[in-house]
Amino acid sequence: MLKRLSKLSVVFLALAISTSALAGCGKNNGQDNTAKENVPQIIKYNLGVDPKTLDPALNAAVDGATVLSNAFEGLMKLDENDKPIAGVAEKWEVSSDGLEYTFKLRKDAKWSDGQQVKAQDFEYAWKRALEPKVAAEYAYQLYYLKNGEKFNKGEAKAEDVGVKAVDETTLKVNLEYATTYFLSLMAFPTYFPVRKDIVEKDPEAWATKPESYICNGPFKMKEWKPKDTLVFVKNENYWNTKNVTLDTIEYKMIEEATSALATFRSGEVDIIEQPPAQETPQLLKDGTAKLYPYLGTYFYCLNLSPNVEKVDPAAAKVIKDPKVRKALALAINRQLIVENVTKGGQIPAFSFVPKGIPDHENKDFTSKEYYKANGDVDAAKKLLQEAGYPDGKGFPKIVLSYNTNEAHQNIAQAVQDMWKKNLNIEIELRNEEWKVFQKTRNTKNYVVARHAWIADYVDPMTFLDMWTTSSGNNDAGYSNPKYDNLIDSAKKERDLAKRTEYLHQAEEVLMDDMPIIPVYYYTNIMCTKEYVKNVRKSPLGFVFFDKAVVEKH
């Protein structure tokens, strides 16, 4: 999660709108039976940390999404260009007004215990994710369903939600408004099916144990040793299992980049991502690592929720001043960070929506630069003075939190130094283990926190609707009725040009209020052993193993 402005990285990001990358790609298509007979089909992939949860309704992180996308399958799945294709649904019909979808499920779709995947499983899963007491962060992702938001807010009943199993193989879906990317959403983990009998038998722990983790994708859980290894094996009941060559995925939990690279070099791990920044240039040069597109933004989140008053009253006062937030943003030299700290082809962020996300004309949605790549110290100092803190005088020390990781630490230290040098303000750095940090951020028990967002689908909305007041992923506690109305208008607008304009206006409001400070746009660095073929890294952050194969070595 690091990189530098270059023609190469711009090209990669542009490619993200039409293609994803095959790590170790070659002529072998993953269905080579000879290879399977002679070579153990096992891939050891460093996931980095234990997923906070593997419950499709509750997961909100890329690590969990990678595991989920290989364990489950939605109505649709993504092809090599990240376009939606048939998954559990073998065919579908859409009404002329775009408000009603009818999906026909394939009859050979099975759960890992052999039972048939039914339309009722989808209806149950979606309504469960919207159930208020479940408190799913991604519940808002199902607000596209008729009465989905109302049910989530306790204003409607479950039976009012626009999803209904007509019979075991027919699912009817009604939307609040026509959504051009709805089929892409059907491949997203929050829309995956789960079985009512499995979940309700053990609601708290069903997704932690192999015996109860019943899934419907190409791989199923065999073993989970926290902070060590998560093992998935081929699911023989998957409808397309004959085209899956890989037998085992061993997800490793090696958090430190230096240690992960050491295990890769020793052969203990076959694939790692995001190697140490200081090693990245040489790894790219000698071909050990490759640069892949990644539709994401690395940023800092500013806590504007009422809870920040309890965390630090003095800090709350300054953080809630938009002039202070803008000063902090302008005082960062992003070019320096991507060139000297992250060193992996990243692009300095000048807005929140990253390069590579298309608008209605298939042009880059991101066109306006809200600040310079090397910052604007004079403007930052002026804003801080106007806020009542000339040369940082009277400005309280604030805490910047991040999850334990040497890359995040290096970036935080660089920002700390810039804010001290450019604004004369003191910043205390605080690191926490990943699960603890996630809770800290989700409960808004922080002042400034590291954050990142990877696209859920290829549309600007995936970066912008998360900041509406009701969004479960709004970790800033940001609320602006004008912004909410613009996002709502964009969702309802069928004229694509007008929709794009609404989204541009919304981002304008967001960047003017500055509840977040974008730092850079991601690229992804992956080291893959040469004998591993056809592992697909999507610009959306997922890693797919269904076509992977291990060759002789």
Automatic annotation (TrEMBL):
Keywords: Signal, Transport
Transport found in the keyword field: yes
Family indicated by similarity: Belongs to the bacterial solute-binding protein 5 family.
One of the protein's GO biological processes: peptide transport
PANTHER family, sorted: DIPEPTIDE-BINDING PROTEIN DPPE, PERIPLASMIC BINDING COMPONENT OF ABC TRANSPORTER
Name of this chain's protein: Oligopeptide transport system substrate-binding protein
InterPro entries linked: Peptide/Ni-bd, SBP_5, SBP_5_CS, SBP_5_dom
Signal peptide positions (record): 1-23
Residues in Solute-binding protein family domain copies: 84-474
Annotated GO MF terms: peptide transmembrane transporter activity
Source organism of this protein record: Clostridium amylolyticum
Topology class, membrane: Lipid-anchor
Keyword field contains Transport: yes
One GO CC term on file: ATP-binding cassette (ABC) transporter complex
